[in-house]
Amino acid sequence: MYFDVGRLGELVKQRELMKLKEVKKEPGYSWIEVKNKTYKFFSGDTTHPQTPEVYDLLEKLINDIRVVNHASTLSEISTPHTELGLCNEGKLLYHSEKLAVCFGLLNLPAGTPIRIFKNIRVCSDCHTTMKHISKITKHEILLRDNYRFHHFKQGCCSCGDFW
Fold first, then answer.
1. Which of 64, 87, 157, 160 counts the most CB atoms within 10 A of its CB?
2. CA 116, 122, 123, 127 torsion: positive or negative?
3. Cβ atoms of residues 133 and 143 within 8 Å
4. Alpha helices in the chain (DSSP H)
5. Pairwise CA distance, residues 119 & 121, whole Å
6. What is the pLDDT along the chain (163 residues), one digit of tens a residue?
């Protein structure tokens, strides 16, 4: 929340206070259902048997997105997070919803909408990435976070980029 409104100093203070008081924040995770089975992903998750394929696809998609200049958005987010020690670019690139969408692309029939659920709010980088993935792959992506439904189709989101 502080990051989204540019109050980075207050964000650092809150994180330090949380650490001092030993407050643990709930880790973000996403889940997707494929063939009546639920698959859960955490940021940077490498526990799934299809991890190599999921990561290969995600890296290919990220490279395709960078070609169309999404890199500027990524650096706007990752640089402050990295400088403040909140996140490294690797973790940002491998957020749970990105892993889940790639798993869906690999395992769902062509043309099937990809439905992902997330326990916390989707970050702006993942939101932008989902828009690009929907355009590149021509898949509809439905992402439910704890605030709203996002319906990504042909590079646009139903929330109008206000979430």
1. 157
2. positive
3. no
4. 8-20, 51-67, 71-83, 89-93, 96-107, 124-137
5. 7
6. 666 666 778 877 887 888 888 788 788 999 999 999 999 999 999 999 999 999 999 999 999 988 876 554 554 444 444 444 545 555 678 999 999 999 999 999 988 999 999 999 999 889 999 999 999 999 999 999 999 999 999 999 999 988 6
Query: In which residue are the tokens 């940002």 written?
Result: 92
Q: How many Å apart are CA 144 and CA 127, to the nearest integer?
A: 11
| CA distances from residue 45 to 16, 65, 69, 158 in whole angstroms, order as listed | 26, 22, 26, 28
- Token digits of residue 123: 């970050």
Upper half-sphere CA count for residue 76 (Cβ side, 13 Å): 13
CA 149 to CA 163: how far, in whole Å? 9
Give the CA angle between residues 41, 46, 52 to the nearest 5°: 110
